């Protein structure tokens, strides 16, 4: 699925903010798995679960836990700081904060790539792989939670993200303010036909050059509870601040996603 245009713009904000960000100290953990790539000892594959008398030998399962904990921690932080923020804005901000591009930069700030254990022949490539570096950061979070508990993890996450959330909220607010699209209506937006309003906007008098197009719907999730994503491309009149903007909606049906 393509990345929403707003997230791409938020990435630029983070790329500027992260190098000079005052980060909290990295708490020490005794776990020796969080930075160990599968190539270091040879990947082991089990059909359902590892045997009782065996131990994890790479960061994969810790990464899985850390990924979930980071997502929930950042979601809660956004909710506490900006309780009136709509869900769509929260989702965009969280996506930018926890995506691999951001985690790779955080891993680099903490010099984690140098600590990645991998097979000698692959070490340089693996240590410079952005996705691996992001995974190692998440695995570290899983190890911290396992050893020091949820309180220590929350404190660490808040120390990193508290200064970043306001920057992204302000940037997203500016995008909304300067957007060339206005869906103002006498009816509440929740009950408005957004697809119809966009269509009217595109063909209104003096609207030469405007266009609204929808990309093919994309589906995620299981059969009984699918989640649909639809990207809408809005082309404004030549000379507008943002000549073309992309928006992504999600919903339980394609129609609902277009309304998002």
From TrEMBL:
Matches recorded under InterPro entries: RNase_III_dom (IPR000999), RNase_III_sf (IPR036389)
CDD domains listed in its UniProt record: RIBOc
Family matches, as Gene3D superfamilies: Ribonuclease III domain (1.10.1520.10)
Annotated RNase III domain residues: 47-149
Molecular-function GO terms, alphabetical: ribonuclease III activity
Organism domain of life: Eukaryota
Organism: Rhodotorula taiwanensis
GO biological process, one term: RNA processing
Protein name according to UniProt: RNase III domain-containing protein
Matches recorded under SMART domains: RIBOc
């Amino acid at each position: 699925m393509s990345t929403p245009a707003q997230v791409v713009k938020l990435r630029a904000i983070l790329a500027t903010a992260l190098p000079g960000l005052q980060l909290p100290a990295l708490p020490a953990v005794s776990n020796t798995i969080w930075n160990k790539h599968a190539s270091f000892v040879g990947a082991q594959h089990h059909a359902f679960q590892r045997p009782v008398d065996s131990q994890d030998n790479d960061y994969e399962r810790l990464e899985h836990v850390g990924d979930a904990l980071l997502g929930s921690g950042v979601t809660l932080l956004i909710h506490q700081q900006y309780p009136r923020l709509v869900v769509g804005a929260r989702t965009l901000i969280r996506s930018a904060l926890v995506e691999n591009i951001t985690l790779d930069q955080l891993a680099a700030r903490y010099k984690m790539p140098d600590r990645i254990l991998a097979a000698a022949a692959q070490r340089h490539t693996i240590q410079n792989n952005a996705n691996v570096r992001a995974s190692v950061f998440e695995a570290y979070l899983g190890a911290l939670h396992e050893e020091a508990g949820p309180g220590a993890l929350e404190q660490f996450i808040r120390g990193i993200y508290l200064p970043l959330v306001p920057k992204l909220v302000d940037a997203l607010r500016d995008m909304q303010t300067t957007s060339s699209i206005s869906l103002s209506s006498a009816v509440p937006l929740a009950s408005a036909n957004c697809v119809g309003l966009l269509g009217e906007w595109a063909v209104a008098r003096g609207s030469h050059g405007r266009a609204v197009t929808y990309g093919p719907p994309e589906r995620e999730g299981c059969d009984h509870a699918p989640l649909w994503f639809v990207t809408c491309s809005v082309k404004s009149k030549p000379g507008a601040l943002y000549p073309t903007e992309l928006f992504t909606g999600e919903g339980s049906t394609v129609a609902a996603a277009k309304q998002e």
